[in-house]
Amino acid sequence: TALASIAGAAVTFLWQGITYLQSSAWPKLSVATALRWLDGRSWVLLVRDWPEAYRLLDAIPLSLALAGLAVLGYVLMKWGSDG
Question: What is the pTM (predicted TM-score) of this model?
Answer without folding.
Answer: 0.76
